[in-house]
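Observation: inputs received (chain + adenosine-5'-diphosphate).
Thought: call the complex predictor directly.
Action: predict_structure
Action Input:
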Amino acid sequence: MQEDTQKDFLEPAERTTQQTRGIMQAVRHAYQNSPYYRKVFDNAGLKPDQINNFPDFQQVPFTRKDDLRDAYPYGMAAVPMERIVRIHASSGTTGKPIVAGYTKQDLDDWAAAVARICAMAGVKASDIAQISFGYGLFTGGFGLHYGLERLGATVVPFSSGNTERQLALMQDFNTNVLVSTPSFALYMAEIAIELGFKPREFGLTIGLFGGEPCSDAMREDIEKFWGLKATVNYGLTEVVGPGISGECEERTGMHILEDVYFPEIIDPESGEVLPDGVTGELVLTPFHKEGFPVLRYRTGDITRLISEPCPCGRTTRRMDYITGRSDDMIIIKGVNVFPSQIEEVLAGFSEVSPHYILILHKQKGFIKDLEVQIELTPEGFSDSFRQLEALEGRIRQRLRSTLSLAPRLKLMEPRTLERTTGKTKRIIVNEL
Ligand code: ADP
Ligand code: ZN
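Observation:
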């Protein structure tokens, strides 16, 4: 760990040298060992020895989600399958799942990366961590499991679901670190309160949350309920799983393990590489992935790179919190909006809970109508029709003035929208 941690504190010149070496290594490995990338390079008329620095690297074509879907299941392999010891697949939130295969070395590197992310969030070997991510094809459960073990923490591999038992064991085992999606952390708190517990008395101190966006409002609620310090971390199956970036205790964005991955931000339309600070689509290249390497992978996640110094002293750039996936962008009557922007408006109303869903009524691929179902808090709910109507009017007004959006609103009674033990599905498409 000691040596690993130093990698977060490299001077800029050292970082550049190290990353240049990283991309060259990734390119050479992919070209020499992956039939898929050999073809990509040949089609582009590129040779690995033409790529020796960051500007050269921009000639390498992007790899897209659809490329990996087309390669289903093993078309991205760069080693014989007998060297692959584990398979994972993406959750399929936005389409057909994508498969990733890991060699023994990949699993070892992955555990080391996740251990660093957890340590950065403040987790110590003396902590007891309950993993409430699903164990299975989803990378979250196994990823955090081996990372936390590598760090030396005590792992309680609960997996997702069975909320009441989760709560009981959390108390019995003196668990102090919770690993889950932010929505499940909230849901568990709701159930705990319903069962007559005081979540704050559970003694949780740190939350490691990921797998889906966590708005400020959600984070505040989670912290208020549990009395823990909530940290978020980021990852995706196609690149490795969790263990790409995460917050340090300062919580100023998610530090990227820049000695393991090369991050770029591009304009999703033109593919042009954008400078630090400008928002666009995150593109990632892992340096050492043996099994299923990817080069310049377009994550679809919208964020920006933050290069201003962090008070923690780490010199790695941070990723800002993900504002959405490019596939989730809603274009309605000429207005482009991300669900997170609607969420931000809703968060301004104390009567509204963090639970909402967007129903896109589509005709011939176009969104004709957007319906927002908004769950009210018990305090915000009222039996008076007039009061509810007034609240609806205020929300509509705020959406219109901040987002130029006039969706249909439906206020829902408390606890009526479906809860999830994994990733929340915020968008439902209804073909008219
Ligand atoms: P799927 O795309 O099917 O959900 P994964 O299970 O691999 O596949 O999940 C990776 C995706 O989850 C990321 O591309 C991103 O959209 C989302 N995600 C993961 N961590 C975070 C986070 N901290 N904040 C926002 N989104 C996240
Ligand atoms: Zn920091």
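Thought: report the result.
Final Answer: Residues 90-94, 138-139, 210-213, 232-237, 299, 301, 322, 325 surround adenosine-5'-diphosphate (ligand 1) (CB under 6 Å). The first helix runs from residue 2 to 6.
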